[in-house]
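In response to reviewer comment 3 from the previous cycle, which asked for concrete evidence that the modeling workflow produces usable outputs, we include below a single protein chain processed end to end. The sequence was submitted unchanged, and the resulting structure tokens are shown without manual editing.
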Amino acid sequence: MQTMNTTRNPSPKTDLAVTHVLAQLLEKLEHSAVPVGAEQYRAVVEHLVHEFEDVEPGAELGQLLDAYPAASEVYENMNYQHAGLCRSALDVSLAAEGAAREAIARAMRGDEPNKDKMHGQG
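The workflow returned the following structure tokens.
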């Protein structure tokens, strides 16, 4: 008797209702004034990871990730091996790198920091 391959390749999920609720819950846990148990946090993240595995990429998912930064970070970490930090703001990273280069160059020249610029007056 020949066995059937029970591994199925389901089509990606387009209904993001559960994903949306989990993303919203994770965001609430992230900003909770009350301490959150590690098991509760882990359970929400693991459930969200399983949802992300089945979700169809696209504009609706992008909007969800834009609305919920904690869920966006989970999604980005899941896909890091393929796309790096694909959802992180590139302009912020580039500006920080530029500021660091300027500070290093000033230090190497022995320049004194411009106090007016340091206090937002330049």
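The CA atoms of residues 26 and 44 lie 7 Å apart. We consider this sufficient to address the reviewer's concern, and the full set will be provided in the supplementary archive.
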